Amino acid sequence: MAPATVTIANGATWQDVAADRQRYRDTTISEVHPPVPELSLEERPLNTTAIPKKFLTEEEIEVTGTDVEELVKKIASGEWTSTAVATAFLRRAGLAQKLANCITELLPKKALTRAAELDQYLATYKKPIGPLHGVPISVKEHMGFKGEDANAGFVGWVGQVPEEDSLILQYLWNSGAVFYARTTQPQTLMHLETSSNLYGATVNPHNTTLTAGGSSGGEGALVALRGSILGIGSDIGGSIRSPAANNGVFGYKPTCLRLPSDGWAVAMHGAESILGTTGPLSTSLEGLRLFSKVIVDQKPWLRQPSLTAMDWKSSAEFFPDRKLRVGVIYSDNVVRPHPPILRALTELVAKLKQSSNIEVVDWNPWKHDLAWSIIASLYFADGGADVKAAIASSGEPWLPLSKFILLDNPHVKEHTIASLWEAVSAREEYRTKYAQLWNETARSSPEGRPIDVILCPTGFGVAPKLETSRYWGYTSQWNLLDYPAIVFPVADRVDAPEREKPFEYPEDYKPIGEEDKYVYDLWRQNGAEGYKDAPISLQLVGRRNHDEQLFKAMQILLEEAGLPAAVPA
Amino acid sequence: MAPATVTIANGATWQDVAADRQRYRDTTISEVHPPVPELSLEERPLNTTAIPKKFLTEEEIEVTGTDVEELVKKIASGEWTSTAVATAFLRRAGLAQKLANCITELLPKKALTRAAELDQYLATYKKPIGPLHGVPISVKEHMGFKGEDANAGFVGWVGQVPEEDSLILQYLWNSGAVFYARTTQPQTLMHLETSSNLYGATVNPHNTTLTAGGSSGGEGALVALRGSILGIGSDIGGSIRSPAANNGVFGYKPTCLRLPSDGWAVAMHGAESILGTTGPLSTSLEGLRLFSKVIVDQKPWLRQPSLTAMDWKSSAEFFPDRKLRVGVIYSDNVVRPHPPILRALTELVAKLKQSSNIEVVDWNPWKHDLAWSIIASLYFADGGADVKAAIASSGEPWLPLSKFILLDNPHVKEHTIASLWEAVSAREEYRTKYAQLWNETARSSPEGRPIDVILCPTGFGVAPKLETSRYWGYTSQWNLLDYPAIVFPVADRVDAPEREKPFEYPEDYKPIGEEDKYVYDLWRQNGAEGYKDAPISLQLVGRRNHDEQLFKAMQILLEEAGLPAAVPA
């Protein structure tokens, strides 16, 4: 397929461009064989997660039901071919599009050509080409892809076609990955949902009245439907963690500059006061780890010099013979989480307290409102000029959540160099203070050890209703601090309202402030029934550049709590 | 001693403030016992390096003639007390002030109190308090020092007194260091010399008509006179390396964010497009390494979160059984180095080519003029407003090299946020290109290995005449790239003019451009005689965050070339 020719530069309207992009997407799906079945409306209930299995072969169900760490073995041993695997995921991803609107295009020709080459390689050399031999990886659209559109959610950018793959794709390719699907993202990339004028809204497969989250919401929904078991997202305020949490899958926001970001299509190129990071979403914890290790093992800092030259450490070396110390945040004191989150957190902590391998301590969140004011003043240091120009370039309308984060955000201002430096100094002061508080937790430990990780909500609730994801604090907090974080499902979901009773807001609840009132009102309006079937997820946070320790802590925590380290197929 | 009370805020003129600072300095020197001898003018020849020995006791000469790695053993074993060591360095530093004008104040009371405590500790516990037990460390003035002035070279800032030590001092203190001397720096901290309206010019002990370099020129001169064997400098464009080279001592500019910088007094707080770094100057290579390791071993990233959480690696693991590949830059193609530098480089390379452990390859410098234009456009992103305000606050005059780097610098502009982002993008593009070229050197290696380090000049010549240090490219290049670098003396100096003959400019030399013409004219005016006795030094550069590899490479290079790893006492 050639890239789009219907563009603003060619004189088309934004509606024309969007329509053409959707046609193009549908065409790529129609090229999958055997064909992706059409779905009637009746075949799309509120909870769509069980649908794909009705339309796939038994082998396809088994293949797409396998997590990364098992899949690599099956392919390396020759039990499954890369071609069969790619075909299964292409078909399931095609179905996912029809259920959740999460795909910008499939890449059947490229994927199957690649898969055939990998099969040939294995046949010839009797060994895999690399540690991800044959693993299909889905990719958020704005990761530059050679010869394919890179619009980053802006209609006016349609027609930008990179001359080479973004760096992270190159490393994954070297490891044997098969790229087969590209996924949706919101206008500006700065929503915790996924809605654009190009593709409309991506919805949550567990409950289609809810958002898939964002900005990597295409990935989140696709992985939830197992149209992917490993996908690439990016995160500057929650964009990996929100969709991972909303869709009940695993997501990992690394410390910035561990994984390559060269070759992204983004606005505000050169901004560095707050960095975004690439990171994986997966059906398994091990999928996240393997993804990261495979890339870091290739020493990406030798090609993207801004990256930290730090090898991926074996997790085995951490906490070998001592208790894990876990700090817990129930509320950030700005917005009280909805009852299902408080319930999950409370139940999990109760389990952890039973463990002889874990010590739980409370963590008192220090001025998370200040943290938000700092990061929000740094997101658009040019006052949003670059983003405004990108939207204006096509005449496309501003979407509500773009307005929310930029136009209606009281912290956004056009900085001078002097005021930028002031804001950066405030950022560093905040980071230093938080580190000091972390260090001081050693005082409550007989061995003088500070906490290892923080356990906390990923958002104010489970997946919000569309257009209501208007509080970022539970994720952006860790972007400001540049702390790595893993989102994990607690294998539970919102169902019977009476389960939430013990964690309901008190009758006479007085909201803490405006943001809390908004969130409180959402719960009053929707209640447990409004969020039915939404998965419940939590977040585990480590110190900056302590990513490998975080993975080990996550593994211990899941084991001790009796939670699965993978999403059931 | 109480901090200064004569300040601009108190209504004094800049001249009053400067005079008071000098009186204060002299008072602190006068408090050393036994007293620091007065020197007559006749006792200050052009080359002053032999003078201190005439005025010190034999024991003092031996103590101050000992390098860090030996000194720690002598103190730990009880052979020398910390008190005796501190006294010897206080006296020699006092002499150094009279010879090179390198001191802003001595700290006899604090140092001797500390030394007595350390002696007591050793007597009580029979072990040193830390790996630097009793080691006197000199400190560039702008490293915040609790209870002492922190003026960063601006008259208007005199009277600023930090409430706590800068972070690096805290880590060194924890390791057993004794702080006894604070050293000069230039107005703005942005000269490759050391001249301020507070203290005048620091001169080169080897030839007092030459500059000590800068901005850590106080350290450079003090270490050259062995008034210190280990000092703390800082470097954003050459400020550690220029004084190390000019004074013939060892200097190390780490990759940024390996060593703490919290607590510096500097203009443009919050600027991060080009970072400066703390780093050591020493009489020995091992002094540099020990300094760095001792700090990094304390995990400073837990307190200054911007630092890279990377342990100090043992050098033993690098290049164990293969040749070191060294790229060589003779000229950066912008400014041809003066004959002594070309001679030293040529002679050293000839020796290295004899070694079976080293492979030498040419490195073609890629657009170092572009590199300068990028870094120079980022040094003062506010167009210099903050620095201008700091100078204006006292009415002190602009010094020539302040004008040179800011007012007369064609690359300085007041950035908007958009133009700042453009310049940052240009910086990253340049870094990426340079990394790519480095990677491509693997093509000329049978084993497919790129070069390990680059060997190059540290400046256009040996120590320049005062006020002529007007080309930064040989050092600022590695700040733009954030590559670590070690400066080392080649155990040679400028002496007989005929030695330089083979490396003289050709009769019909056509300067490459304006900067080259300026440098060429300097040589024509001064010749070898003008630079008599100036030490010759070179620079070894590693890849970003490959600091430990660089140390190992430096060690191999010195061994193979038969050069000493320490300055003769």
Structure summarized in a few sentences:
The first copy, chain A, has about 575 residues and is α/β, with parallel strands linked by helices. Chain A contains 19 helices and 15 strands.
Task: Write up this protein.
The structure is a homodimer of 569-residue chains. Chain A is of the alpha/beta class. Chain A is built from 19 helices and 15 strands. In chain A, strands 1-3-2-8-10-9-14-15-13-11-12 form an eleven-stranded mixed β-sheet, with helices on both faces. Chain A has a two-stranded antiparallel sheet with strand order 4-5. In chain A, strands 6-7 form a two-stranded antiparallel sheet. In chain A, helix 5 runs antiparallel to helix 6 and helix 12 runs antiparallel to helix 15. Chains A and B meet through helix 15 of A and helix 15 of B.
Query: Tell me about the biggest sheet of chain A?
Result: 11 strands, mixed
Strand coverage percent of chain A? 5-15%
Form type of chain A? globular
The named CATH superfamily of the largest domain in chain A: Amidase signature (AS) domain
Major interchain interface with per-chain residue totals: A-B, 46 and 46 residues
**Fraction of residues of chain A in helices?**
25-40%
**Largest sheet of chain A, order of strands side by side?**
1-3-2-8-10-9-14-15-13-11-12
Low-confidence blocks of residues of chain A: none
Number of domains of chain A: 2
- Coarse structural class of chain A: alpha/beta
Spatial extent as radius of gyration of chain A: 22 Å
What's the count of strands of chain A? Answer: 15
Span of the ends, CA to CA of chain A:
33 Å
Name of the level-1 CATH class of the largest domain in chain A? Alpha Beta
Quaternary state of the chains: homodimer
Q: Total number of helical segments of chain A? A: 19
By CATH, the architecture of the largest domain in chain A is named: Alpha-Beta Complex
